[in-house]
Every structure is written in C-alpha cells, then in structure tokens.
Amino acid sequence: MADTASKLWAIVRREYIERVRTRWFMISTIFAPLLFAAIAFLPLLLMTKDAKSVAPRVLIIDATQQGLGKYVARSLAVLRSTSEDATTADVRIVSPDSLAHARDNATSEVARRLANGFVVLDSATLRGDTAGYAGRQADSKSDRLTIANSVRSGLIALRLERGGLSASSIDSVVSAPIPTIQAASINDSGRDVTTPAKAIIATIVAFFLYMSIIIYGQNMLSGVIEEKMSRVSEIVISSVKPETLLAGKVIGVTAVGLTQQIVWVGGTVLLISARTMLFGAPAIAKAQAAGAAGGFGSNDMLAALVATPWSWVVLVLVLFLLGLLFYGALYAAVGATVGSEQDARQAAFPVVLLLVLTAVLISPTVQNPTSTLAVTMSMLPFSSPIILPIRMAITNVPTIQVVASLAILVLSCLGAIWLAGRIYRVGLLMYGKRPTLAEVRRWIFTS
Amino acid sequence: MTQNAIEASHVNKQYSGHVAVRDLSLSVPTGAVYGLLGPNGAGKTTTIRMVLNIIEPDSGTINVMGVPATSAGISDRIGYLPEERGLYRKMKVRDVLKFLAALKGVHAHDADRRIDWWLDKLSLRTDERDWGSAKIEELSRGMQQKAQFIGALLHDPDLMILDEPFSGLDPVNAQALKDSVMDLRSRGKTVIFSTHIIENAESMCDSVCIIAHGEKVLDGTLADVKTQYGGPPVEKTVMVQPSLYDIFLQRVGATGVEPGMRGHG
Questions:
Q1: What is the pTM of this model?
Q2: Phi-psi category of B53—alpha, beta or left, where left has phi over 0 and alpha has psi -120 to 50?
Q3: Which of A79, A88, A287, B42 pairs with B146 at a CA distance of 20 to 30 A?
Q4: pLDDT tens digit sequence for A132-191
Q5: Residue A324 and residue A213: Cα distance in Å, rounded?
Q6: What angle do CA B136, B142, B146 make, to 5 degrees?
Q7: Element containing residue A198 per DSSP (H, E)
Q8: Residues of A in contact with B99 (CB under 8 A)
Q9: A434 touches chain B (CB under 8 A)
C-alpha cells in the first residue's frame, strides 16, 4: 500500500517538473539576474565606455590674469580623486581679448574627443558670479557641482595667496581630502541607516516578490481549473484525499517559485562576484572611487547589493515561501469554485485586491518604514511577505516584530490551507453554475 | 462463501434540495461483470463516487471488498475510469500514466513495464509510432480514452469501475475495451460499469442493477432478472428481406467466381 506521503510526493513532483519544463520558466529565471546585474553594472558600463571613447581631461581656460586656473585644476584633481586627471588637466592662460578664440579651439577639441569639456574662468568668476563649463556631459548635475566646487576652492586659494599665505600652505588647503560621508538618517524611532541605494534595492525586491506571487498564484488558479474542467481531478481524488491533492499542488507550485527565487539570488551573486572579470580591476576601482567621492558616476547600487546581508536574503526567501503558500491556497480555493477561466477572473478579484493593496503600500513603506501603517502591514499575513522585507532592508525592525509577523503568517498559512481544503473537497466535483457565498460557507463548515 | 466485492446498504445522498440516491442497497458479487443501468441523471455516477469515497453518503453504509469504503488503502485496489474524460493535455502519455500509477503506489520501474505491455495490447505502440512519447493533446479522442483506460488498470486493481466506458468510441476501439474487460473477468477481477446502452450490458454482464430517479428498480443476475421480470420466453417470427451477404452467398458461393464473369482490365 502506498502511503499518503509517497502519493503527495508524486503530486508535488508532477506539479514541479511540468512547470519547470516550460519555456516561460526558463526565460523568466534567466532574465531577472541579468536585469539586477544590469542595474548594478550600469555605472561601470558607462565608465568603461567613457574611458575608451572620451579623453578624461578637462581644459581650463583662464582669462582672469590672476592665476586662478592652476588652483582650480588642483582642486578638480582632488575632487575627482585620481592622479590621472591631475596630470591631464590642461590650464590655458589667455587674455580676455583672445577668450573667444580659445573657446572655439576648446570646443573643437571636445568635438574631436581630445577633451571631455572645458571650464572658462574670467573676471566674473573672480567676483564669484559665474564660471563657464561646456562639455559632453554638461547637463550632468554632479559634473556641474564638481566644477563649481573646484572653482570655489580655487577662489579661496587665490584669496589666501593674496593674504600672504605660503604656496605650500595653500596647496595643503586645496588638496585637503574629501571624506566619505557615512550617511545616517534619523526618523521617529531614532537612528536609521537608510541609503537611497538600499531603498531602490528593497523596492525592486518587493516588486519581484509581488510579481512572483501574482504569477504563481494565477498559475495555481489555471492549474486547478484545468484539472477540474478536464476531470483529471476526479481520477486523482479517487486515489488521494482532496486535501492531499491541494497540498501537493500548493507545495509543488511554491517549490517552483522558490527555485526561481534561489536562481535569481544565486545568479545575481555570481554576476556581481564576476564583475572584476567582466570589467577589469581598474574600472571597478575607478567606479568605487567615483562613488565614494559622489562625483562623476555612482557605484552605490553595486556597493549596496554587495553589502546585502545573507540573513536578509534568507528571510526574504522564507517570507516568499510562506506568502506563496498563503496565496497559493487562496487561489486554489477560488479555482475549485469556478468552472471556467472567465469565471475565475471575477472570483479571484478579492485575492488580487489584497495583492494590489499591498503593492500600493510599497512606496509609502520605503519612504517611512517605521510608520504605523508600515508596521501594521508588515504584520498582516496578506501583505507581510512583501512589506516586511522592505522594512528590514532599510530600517532596524525590532526582533519581536519580525517574530510576531512570521508567527502570524505561519498560522495564517495553516488557516488558509485548511479553508482551501474544505472548499476544494466539495468544489472540485461541482460543475455548472458558480456557488453563492452561502453555499461556499456551507462547504466550509459542514463536515 | 465468497464475500461480495461491494455491499451497499440503505444509502442516501442529497444535494441542496435534490435527492440523488434514495435508500439504495446492492450487492456486487466478486469476480462478476456488473452493470449499473439507468437513464441520464438516475444516480449512477453519484453511486459510483460514493463507492470510491470521493463523496460521502448522507446515511447508509458501503463496504468495498470487506472493509468500509472510507478505509485507508482500499483505493489502491480500485481502478476508475470516470464518465467525463480528460488528462493533462500538455503532458506526455507515458508521464501521465506513470503519474497515475504512482498515485496507486506502483513503483516507476514496474510502471514502465506495465505501460509498455498495455500500449502494445491496445495498439498505442506499433512499429510505426510509439504514442507513449506523444503529448496527450496529439492523440485522437479514442486514443486518449484508451490511454485513460490504461491509467485505470496499471496497478492491476481487484475492482474496476468504468463509468460509461464505451461512449464516444468507434466500434474497433470499443471492441478492444470490451475484450479487455472480459480478460479482467477471466482473471477473477470484479468489473462494474455504468451504461445507458442496454445492448452492451446484456452482452457483457453477469449481474445488473437498474436505477431510476435515484432509486433501485431491480437487481440480480442477468438470468434471474430475465426470469423474474421478463415473463415466459416469447417466440417471435420476423419477416426480413435476405441480406446482401445472403445474396452474395447465393449467387457467388463461398468458393469462387460465378461462371462466365470476367475480371476488369
């Protein structure tokens, strides 16, 4: 006699293998890590491209006749943090009359990719009013900010020189290093460690969790309807209890979703680990330096991804597993009550509504992860699998809240599976018209 | 005395306001081919589902092979072909059959061997094509029905329940299934089939039960039913024209061509 466990295993295996074999599964499983890597590597890619196509130097056209240019060049080198830039910063001292001509020459050089851009210093600059900047990335806010800071440092140095400070002292002022700011925001509950990159990662992960639960929930729904309408379920429940069939389906579909998530996490980790091989050490170092200086490119996403703690990843997977069990059971219950895909869309509306409500709350949670709304939603079973990971990524969630949320979710999963089992048992053999709510209530509470 | 394969006693089943089965009692002898006859909506399928423990009766008892129908493990001794047929359309025939076998506790290795045997027997594996490696959706309706029949038999059940097994089958496939049913009987298995085609029941069944409006009308062995309810034998004289076959035999004979006939060409 085959025991229930081996029959359950047969159902789980069929659900798993048949879903994993599909083309859709293969494509979506490979796609996500590539997307994550693309987001993380975008600054590196741009930087690699820059290094090849545009000369990394800035021309400084100094028409001040006071020697401001050399200080601006020095300051710019410090701000850009690489010695390479310091040697290639090209200061051209010109008279105010020949400024237009020098500007034309510089424009031509930038056009021919001999330089990245040029800064124009004149009498207005000395007054602290304006300085000119033209270049291939002139619309970049961070570039403009770097130039403005360099010019300001240059002006300070010039005034110190006029005040009689020695050249070496001036140089030590201008070349004072820029410290890396370790940002720590403070919210209602005290110190917070939010960074924009973390918030972006949390939002992307939440979005993926939401999409996965919707997709696998719908997958479960259509699977149940197919079995019911083709009457295969009648053959299966002549061999196993309906509750066993339901459990097998929910576990099988959840396992498929979990497999995909694990491949996504593993693939992303692998690609990030292979970044040196893909882009070369100099590009990585440059990106990190630029990221630290907050200058011409940001490496924050990659840094935040690398710094993601494993405990968080594991918790996300556990929450995803429980979320899929919860929603899988609800979707299966809905599937058992309907007789066609069209009916299913209507009947599944309340379940979809719960998910959409959760999705709507992703952004407010990211903005204020300690608000009452966010805390409440991270406790409720229908939203906690998506909301709790966001809160945990960007703020310190008290352990008691995490434990309570997990406990509520586990109990709710058991409840949902029990409820779905009761509906499934009767619904699978009901063909024809959709049952009323009163009838469904009777299925649940009549033994 | 051999126990009955099925003993149902005073079974009732009601769906919201509608009585599906009323006070039904029946006995199915072990090793018999038993016909459950009745018009559509008579309660045949509900009775079968209660025997299979897919649904529970509101009252009454059902014993299957000596134990209550609700007993753990009894389903592994029953094969079932439901009236409405369908299988996982995207799966390969062999994979579906292995899945159905696994649900009955048959190990994969045994299942493969048995699947080969049945595919050969029901002509789903020939020199030209092995339909076992095709997807269900690639099979014709008759082939799908045969595949499902194999799925119900792979665990070599002691009791086979077939709900309207011959509906939708062409005469050749229907005969293949009938032969298989008679094979089962010769091996001492019990077969119950529901049908509303009385000729099938008469040619195959040892015993029958007629149900209408959820109630038993009569039951017993075919001979007893005929004796008890059919009255004395009636001699019928039927006037018919000779068949084409008779004409052929008369004009051509069984041995050769009529003298003087010429072949074409």
A1: 0.71
A2: left
A3: B42
A4: 999 877 777 777 888 888 899 899 999 998 888 888 888 888 888 777 776 666 655 555
A5: 6
A6: 70
A7: helix A196-229
A8: 10, 14
A9: no
Quick one: pLDDT at residue A289? Answer: 54
Nearest residue, CB atoms, A232 vs list B54, B76, B88: B88
CA B215, CA A335: separation in Å to the nearest integer?
A: 33
For residue B46, what is the nearest residue in chain A, using CA coordinates?
A429
- pLDDT number for residue A196: 67
Best residue in A8, A234, A443 for a mutation probing chain B (most B CBs within 10 Å): A234
Nearest to A240 among B85, B103, B148 (CB): B103
pLDDT tens-digit map of A22-60: 888 888 888 877 777 777 677 666 655 554 443 457 889
Query: Is residue B215 left, alpha or beta, with left meaning phi > 0 and alpha meaning psi from -120 to 50?
Result: beta
A378, A350 Cβ separation under 8 angstroms:
no
Series of mean pLDDT values for 10-residue runs along chain B (265 residues):
84 86 93 90 90 91 93 90 85 94 91 93 87 91 89 93 85 85 92 86 89 90 84 79 78 57 42
CA distance A163 to A175: 18
Q: CA angle, A201 as apex, A197 and A204 as ends, to 5°?
A: 140
Distance from CA of B155 to the nearest CA of A (A): 11
- Grouping H, G, I as helix, E, B as strand and the rest as coil, residue A150 is helix
Closest-CA residue of chain B to A426:
B55
Name, in order, each residue with C-beta under 8 angstroms of A278's C-beta and a sequence gap of 6 or more: A41, A271
The pLDDT score that the predictor gives to residue B260 is 44
Interatomic CA distance for residues A218 and A259, integer angstroms: 17
The dihedral built from the CA positions of residue A62, A64, A67 and A69, taken in this order, carries a sign that is negative
The two beta strands, B207-212 and B33-37, are parallel
- Residues B227 and B225: their CA atoms lie apart, in Å, by 5
* Residue where the block lists tokens 């389906």: A249
| Location of structure tokens 């299925």 | A443
Nearest-CA distance B44 → chain A (Å): 15
- Complex ipTM, two decimals? 0.82
Q: What's chain B look like in SS3?
A: CCCEEEEEEEEEEEECCEEEEEEEEEEEECCCEEEEECCCCCCHHHHHHHHCCCCCCCEEEEEECCEECCCCCHHHHEEEECCCCCCCCCCEHHHHHHHHHHHCCCCHHHHHHHHHHHHHHCCCECCCCEHHHCEHHHCCHHHHHHHHHHHHHCCCCCEEEEECCCCCCCHHHHHHHHHHHHHHHHCCCEEEEEECCHHHHHHHCCEEEEEECCEEEEEEEHHHHHHHHHCCCCCCCCCCCCCHHHHHHHHCCCCCCCCCCCCCC
Mutate to test the interface with A, among B49, B51, B53, B54 (most CBs of A within 10 A): B54
Buried b (16+ CB within 10 A) or exposed e, B139-175: beebbbbbbbbbbbbbbebbbbbbbbbbeebeeebbe
Question: In sequence order, what are the residues at sequence separation of 6 or more whose Cβ sits closer than 8 angstroms to the Cβ of residue A70?
Answer: A62, A91
SS3 A21: coil
Contacts of A338 (CB under 8 A, 6+ apart): A225, A344, A347, A434
3-state secondary structure (DSSP) of residue A119: strand
Look-up: residue for tokens 């024209």? Answer: B241
Kindly report the backbone phi and psi dihedral angles of residue A57, in degrees, each rounded to the nearest multiple of 5, phi listed first: -120, 155
Rounded CA-CA distance B79/A197 in Å is 60
Structure tokens at A28: 């979506």
Element (H, E) at A246: helix A242-273
Pick the residue from chain A with its C-alpha nearest to B52: A238
Residue A85 has pLDDT above 60, yes or no: no
Q: Kindly list the residues from chain B whose CB atom is less than 8 angstroms away from the CB atom of residue A14.
A: 95, 99
Does residue A17 surpass a pLDDT of 50? yes
Tokens of A274: 């292979």
